[in-house]
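#lab-general

N.A. 3:47 PM
ok so I finally got the sequence cleaned up, no stray characters, all 297 residues accounted for. can someone with queue access submit it? mine expired

B.Y. 3:52 PM
send it over

N.A. 3:53 PM
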Amino acid sequence: MRAKGQAAAAGRAHPPESPARALRAAGVTPSKRRGQNFLVQGAVADRIVALADLSAGDEVVEIGPGLGILSERILAAPISALHLIEMDRGLAARLRRRLADKADLIEADFLTVDLRRVVRRPPVKVIGNLPFNIAAAILRKLGDARDLIDRMVLMFQREVGERLRARAGEHAYGALSALTALDWEIAQHFRVEAGSFHPRPKVDAEVLCFLPRRKPLCPPQLRAMLIDTIRAGFAIRRKNLRNTLSAGLRMRTEEVEAALGLAHIAPTERAERLELQDFVRLAHALQTIRATACSDA
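B.Y. 4:20 PM
back already:
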């Protein structure tokens, strides 16, 4: 009950203001190029922050706070610090006026920010309504800093969200699914209707809760080969692995067939049907065959 009361108090911290009016006052016109669709549904914001499971002493990074609907709810929790990363000058100025004494504001494109210089006492929690057009790039950058992160609650375009959490054999399963599973476990997810945003996008969104894998699924020396194998395997959908890996990894067909044999995977199998553990086994076999070929040369 206390948490709900705090969230409600945060929502009353400033007089209600329509999203359109708030954006005009900030001198901001929502940009399709930047993928700017602002969350305006309070109940959804409450659910996102609740999923972050904030507790005393947590340090939080919010990506693209926009109008601050999540920020004010995050600040209602007993956190130790909140870092807001906002690239839009008008929105950053508005946030600075409203929250400067409560949060650390960084006016920059998240893709250019060194998270290791921002975070004070890792691990941190990351929350964000990500711009639809660069959401995958932001997730890749967060993956590079996964050792700093305890939990992430991020919103994506629904189609991207489905791809991120898809499993082998499902229609949405692809390279993004496998590469995400390499670093993260998706604990929970829920759908957000398009009407929850201003301006209203053409598609629904999806919120996903990510937990970093504490135990690597492959040794560090195999990681680069594993990533290359996943990308090559999915480069041409619905083609057999013998052909896609030969082209994508620039290996002879007989070498790829030998690796598939070592990994106990049929040459006619397709990437869409492989579990992540299968890719790990295949990457190890490919690396072994490649090393043997180099030593023979």
